[in-house]
Structure formats: structure tokens, C-alpha cells
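REQUEST
  id: r-88c1
  op: predict_structure
  target: Bcr/CflA family drug resistance efflux transporter
  payload:
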Amino acid sequence: MRARDLASPTRVTAALVGTLALQSAVPPFATDMYTPAFPQVTADLATQASLVGLTLTAFFLGLGAGQLIGGPLSDQRGRRMPIILGGLVCTIGAVGCALAPSIGLLVAARVVQGLGGGIASAVARAVLVDVARGDQLARLMAVLMALGGLAPMIAPVAGAGVLTVGTWRTVFWALVALGLLMTVTAVRWIPETLPPSRRHAGGLGRSVARFGEVLRIRPFVGYMLTSSFSAFSMMAYVANATYVLQVQKGMGTFPYALFFASTALAQVLLSLVNARLVGRFRPRRLILVGLSASTTAVLALTLGVLVWDTPLVLTCAGFLVLMAAQAFIFGNAGALAAGQATHMAGSASAVQGVVQALAMALAAPLASAGGGATAVPMVLVMLVGVIGSWVACGIVVPRPAAIPAAAPHDSAEASR
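RESPONSE
  id: r-88c1
  status: 200
  body:
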């Protein structure tokens, strides 16, 4: 492959990075803004709470499908058209949700909304791989993670604010505005970053084959699993912390909300620290720092649950360290994985997104199985996550000297 095809001439600007972060902000806004309105939806549509809960499932199913579609499509047609399409589809889905006269149509519209969000988020990660390499990619992914970490902090507050002046339908009109903002910023600030010489031909069969090619790249799989298992551990905290802290430890609702926000803020701040450290320290070494901190926190929480009743302050400290440690894992592992499949960044982005989403979707019900009665399921999920992360990073990933600086298939793909 010619040198000029290996890097995009696109200049990385604050506007570009902010726009890419916005494309990935759909899931927290589309869930955290909406869940407080569940009772209103149940009453207004004369339905059951379980069916309203199905609207969340529908959204995440659409999100996964959108990533599987958007990633390969962007490898074939370039990045600009699919990411704009994703924003438009997400907007149309949000309009359908706001106007839905029945729970069935609301579920269907949520699938469409998730589909558009999935397309946009998968292509956004591929754009980042197009415009950056090596340490710069790791730094930008850390910044993207920091910006993305703000969304779960802002979304619940925004949703509560909207519900004080409107109804659940108003929440979806706000999400329509978010979809339009995604589309407009993509049109304005995201150029075409994949030249025709690096695009792939073929239809559905070729797309499926590329997923297989990505999964045969051992370093990619190892780093992808490192971040996915870490997400598995983190989701155990997200899903069950309310039972542990409020039911078992007696923490009030408002203090719990402040603490939950503080753990997200710690992750955001350490993501920015990580971005400054990349270049001084190799991303793999920073991953090991994060895994060590995460393991320490999980072991402390496990001892607290299984051996002795940990005081509230130490339980909170364990949760805080667990969340903060992810700042050194997600961005670096994602960058190292993406760096092994730059020749099909869209497909690789889709695989990473779907596997991590599946890990989090599986962790949530498993970790919260004990409810307020016991935290044993939560710590077991955390232990599986940290052990899996160490195995993936230490065994699945080859020794650093054996990992090529770029995907070995680039030259072969360029000749096709």
C-alpha cells in the first residue's frame, strides 16, 4: 500500500473530535433521559410495565444491528454518507417514538432509533482510526471516552428537567433535536476520511467474511476482549450499586445520586490524565495499571461481601477505584485493537461495539440477580470480568515484540 494511503490528510480538530463524541452519545441520552418517564408511558399508552421495559431492549437490539450494518457499509462506501445516514435514521426513529399511539409502535420506533445510533457510533470510531495512528489514536480515544463519560452525567438531569415542563413525548422531541444535531454536525465537520483506494467491494456475503477476517487477528481479539471483560466488571457496579448502597448500606437517594455522578466524573478526569500519559508510557503499560487497580478494587469488594461487612466508606472507595480504573483500559485497549485492523476499520469498529454491548447486556441481569438481599452475584460478575481481562491481555494478546505495528493485510487488501 502506498504511504499516502496509510494516513488521512484530514486534520484532527476539536470540532471533529467533539462531533465524533456526539455521534456516540445516543445510547446514554436515549436511555437515561427516558427511563424516569416509564410510569407516564405505562399510564398514557394503557400498557404493562414489562412492555415498556421492552422498549429498552428494542433500542439496544437496534443499536447492535446498526453497528453491524454501519461498520461494513462505511468500509465499502466511505465514512461520510453512512454517518450522516445514521443521524437521519436516529432522528426519524425519535420522531416515531414521540408520535407513537401504542406500545407496539413505540417498540418498533425504538428499534429504528437504535439502528441509526448504532450506524453513527460505529462509523465515528472508524473515522477516528482513519485520521490517527499509534499514540495519537490512543490519546484521542481517551479524550473521546472522557467526552462520552459526560453523557451519563448530563442525561438523567436533562431528562428530569424535561419531565418537569413536559411529558414523556417531550423527552423524545428533545431526542429528535439531538438526532438533528448529530446530522448537522456530521455534515459540517466530518469530511470523507476513507479514499476510494482503501474501500472494499462486495455485498452482504463479503461483509460477513470481513467480520471473520477481523476475528482472525489475534492481537485485535485480545485487546477487544480486554475492554469487553472490563466493561463486564464495570456494568456489575452500574446495575447493582443502588441495591448495595441504598438497600444494604442505607445510603439516601440524593447522596447515592451524587456518589454515582462522582464515579463517572472520576472516570472522565482520569481519561484526560491518560490522554496526557500516552506517549510517555506505552498504552499497553497503562492498561496493566488500570487492570491492577481494577483487580485491587474487586478483591476488596469481594472480601467485604464474602468475609466481613465492609463499612460504607470502604465500599464506596472500592466502587470509585473500579470505575476510575476503566479510564486506563477502555481507550488504550480500543486503540490497540483498532490499530491491528486499519485496513477494515469499519468492520473492526462494529465487532468491538457489538461484543462490548453484549458483555454489558449480559452482566447487568447477572449482577443484579441478588437484588437488595445479597451482593454475591455482583462480586462474582466482577471477578469473572477482571480474570477475563487479565487472560485476554496476558495470554490472548501475543507478546508486544510479536505484534505488528499495523495490520499485516494492508498490502494484500490494497491489491484487491
